[in-house]
Amino acid sequence: MSSLSSAIVLAAGRGERMRPLTDTCPKPLLAVQGKPLMQYHLEALAQGGFGSAVVNTAWLGEQIEARFKHVLGLKPPFNQREQLSKTEQISLSYSHEGQDFGGALETAGGIARALPQLAPVFWSMAGDVYAPDFVFTQAAVDRFAASGLLAHLWLVPNPAHHRRGDFGLDSPDAQGVGICTDPPADSPTPRYTFSTFALFHHALFAAPWCDIPPGNPEGVKAPLAPLLRKAMAQAQVSAEIYTGRWTDVGTPERLAELNH
């Protein structure tokens, strides 16, 4: 297995809307049905055969490393057939933005910082969304790598708190994969919400799309959306609709509903 990580779990945010819960606990460690939010992603990555991930941290990041350390084992039961194709643990490394720069670098800045630790094509997801049905597959990685595109996003139907959505989906094929677009505000084109699950190519975080030096040595803060929109304008982003369970756990009320 390559020494480079196959995924980054974004876990650096402060979680202001989740206060007071996040005053003493980082948002990705808040529990749903007895399990930390980000652990669902880590276990699903391992079950998909992806044996390593980078976790970026800032707010209370030391708690995340103390909780998961550097290896997370999967708990049985697994049937024998599953064990033949899936790893039983995932190795973890960390990009501690809080320790290195005093705070989070936002999504693009954080990914750019961790990029030297990541494989040329890698998964990315927010550690504070609940999506227990999402499946990570090598087939998705291979399809994306063969496409030559810069990013592939999973979109979800718009939740009540985000009715306008983020991006559009143009000309999906028989598998539901199409070109991801950024329709004008007055366009009748349906928009969907970005689930935070994505596959990225290193090239998205290099010129001409991104002007942050490799590894982000200066700790530049940068959001992801402008990079994606720039790439979408050149038809360099694909997408598909994800219809499994998905919740942006953005408020204590949403967390309580999941735990009801």
Q: Could you list some keywords that capture this structure?
A:
10-stranded mixed sheet; 260 residues; alpha/beta; single chain; 25% helix
Report on this structure:
With 260 residues, the protein is of the alpha/beta class. The chain has a single domain (5-258), classed as Spore Coat Polysaccharide Biosynthesis Protein SpsA, Chain A (Alpha-Beta Complex), CATH 3.90.550. 25% of the residues lie in helices and 26% in strands. It has 8 helices and 14 strands. It has helices spanning 37-47, 61-68, 80-85, 97-101, 106-114, 138-147, 225-232, 252-258, and strands at 5-11, 31-32, 35-36, 52-57, 71-73, 89-96, 118-126, 129-130, 151-156, 168-170, 178-181, 193-201, 237-241, 247-248. The protein has a 10-stranded mixed β-sheet with strand order 5-6-4-1-7-12-9-13-11-10, sandwiched between helices. Strands 2-3 form a two-stranded antiparallel ribbon. A two-stranded antiparallel sheet has the order 8-14. β10 (168-170) and β11 (178-181) form a beta hairpin. The longest helix is centred in the N-terminal third of the chain and has 11 residues, at 37-47. The radius of gyration is 18 Å and the shape is globular. The model is unreliable at 77-85 (pLDDT under 50).
